[in-house]
Structure formats: C-alpha cells, structure tokens
Amino acid sequence: MAGNPIIEALEHVWRTIAELNRPVAVAGGIALAAWGHVRATRDVDLLVGIDAADLKPLLERLAAAGVRPKHQQPVLTVGPLRLLQLLYEPPGHTSTSKLICSWQNPPTSARLSRVESQLS
What is the widest separation between alpha-carbon atoms in the chain? Predict the structure, then answer.
C-alpha cells in the first residue's frame, strides 16, 4: 500500500535541501498539524534560508532529485518574499505534490520567524 504522497514529498525535498546545508522549516498545513491543529492540505510549504547565489544550486539539486518548477520562470516575487512553486510526483503515486519554497534575503532565523508568522 502506498504511503501519503504529501509526506513522501516533504521527506524527499527535505533530504534534498538538507544536502545543501541550508536552514529549512516547515510551514503551512503540515506545520499546523505538528502543533495539533490538523487541516486538510494538498501541498508542502517550506521556508528555506538561501540568498540569491544559492538559488541556482538549489534548483539544480532539486531537478536532479526529480523536483521541477511549476512555471517556466520559477521565482515569483511577492513583496519581500521570493517564492518557488515546485512539483514532485513520489514514486508509486499518480498524483503530483505541489511544493512552495520561500525565502527572504538575507536569510536569518529572525526573518524566517517573521515570514512563518505572516504565513500562519
């Protein structure tokens, strides 16, 4: 029996980003569930501590791991946020998981905390 494709996508992308030694945090519905506020979610929201120079290596590493940008121009800018909308289909599943990675420049834990509070 296949597992949960959202959790499989989270684990896969988390391991992939961890190889780059960049700070990463879970946000959105999965983070809420970890705090006991379960809600239906169909995507993975991650906050990643990168700067502009880290973007190309991040995209290359994700592509090598089978994660692809949702749009031809992968970066969407919303105010101070830079968003990547990504797609990943875990092996054995027919549905594609949506992932959203966001960051601010420079990446500091204080900024990541502020972004996380804005997203909740």
Answer: 43
